[in-house]
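Recap slide: Bifunctional chorismate mutase/prephenate dehydratase, sequence and predicted structure.
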Amino acid sequence: MTAIIPLSELRERIDSIDRQLLQLINQRAACAIEVARTKLAEGETGSFYRADREAQVLRKIKELNPGPLSDEASVHLFRELMSACLALEKPLEVAFLGPVGTFTQQATFKHFGHAVKGIPVATIPEIFLAVETGHCQFGVVPVENSTEGVIAHTLDRFMTTSLQICGEVEIRVHQNLLGKMDSLTAINEVYSHQQSLAQCRQWLNTYLPGVPCTAVSSNAEAARLASLDHNKAAIAGLMAAELYELNIIEQHIEDESNNTTRFIVIGKQQPASTGLDKTSILVSTGNQAGALHKILGPFAEYGISMAHIESRPSRQGLWEYVFFIDIDGHRDDTDVAKALETLQNNVKMLKILGSYPKAVI
């Protein structure tokens, strides 16, 4: 039988380990400062954040983790440590779809850590503009939801922007009914983003039949509006409930329990290959027979897996479409490069939107 260790001894051990951890953390922070000095000496004056490097470090943490902490917990701890160290080099400014309390802000913190300076922006086009003009180094925008499909405003903006996709992050979306009231009977209107209203349609029809549902610019804005009236409710995340001091009337009211939103990180950076990457492209074929076959053929020829394909009107001709496609691999990988070169010769237009590490956390 294993002997029980006295509590006082265990606490002494923890205190000793904490002192060692603090020393090691600050040693890492000092190294981060030296990294910044070296980069500046070598003429690198842009963002010190490297999506490829951070993905490799976090994947290594997963590989090395012996437990008992889970891989997810270990990666989150190191994500925040890396974020704090990077802020010592040069704080990042990241634009997200505001106001504060949105799922896009949650995605921003999940990807970059809480040491970044998040800049809330009113619309998706304004996020692109903030990065294009250099007001922010990066932006985070939603691109698709597992139940409601793509975010058209995001895809359409890629037709004109020169920005690259630098990374991706996924958030499991749990919708909650929030308000100043204590029961459903007091609610005479529900606010939320149109996507969230759609994700909770069955629940609303069942438990709030006949109650008007009003679409607003974001879930956080819905929570703000609900905080002003004791008969208005909002569908939003728990972060919004805390920020706007709302009661959580019902939790997890989304119709699909695995409801997930994918966000992408946009910037001017082109991450290097990490071995576990994704490439997003924009393709136009014009209005011609066999167009889709011309797109898919090169990927089949070189054994490239296609993760997603979506069509959108090109706005340049009647019944002309562009295709947004995600494939596995990096643009610099040999087979991917060959497939893209072949595709270039088959289509009217090919635009590489970015090669970037697959989401780690």
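The mean pLDDT is 92.
The domain at 49-173+257-269 is CATH 3.40.190.10 (D-Maltodextrin-Binding Protein; domain 2).
(End of recap.)
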